[in-house]
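Q: Hi! First time doing this. I have a protein sequence and I read that you can turn it into a structure. Is that right? Here it is:
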Amino acid sequence: MSKPLVMTHAGDDSDGKIWGIEGINLLFILAGLLLGVGVAMMLFRQHAPLVSAAGGLVPLVIASAYVFGLRQGKPRAYDTDLLETLAGCSGWAPSRHQPRNPLHRP
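A: Yes, that's right. Below is the predicted 3D structure, encoded as structure tokens:
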């Protein structure tokens, strides 16, 4: 007796989502939050509460902008390819224009 064919969507697999944020991206936001709390606590000892809160928001805003601007909903390695392209390399160039060894630049 043959087994029935089961249709799967293996290409749709992901790392999962929490609150609509994809897997590893949540760790970037949590790291920004933790760093922001640390910065705010250090600033609170010598500055006004408003200054320390504003300073603590900076890491969280940077991490959130990175995640939602360059990672969330984008293809894998989009952020690194964009960085390579902006650095003057061939991040998104066709393979015939890329060097064989990525460490060797002509």
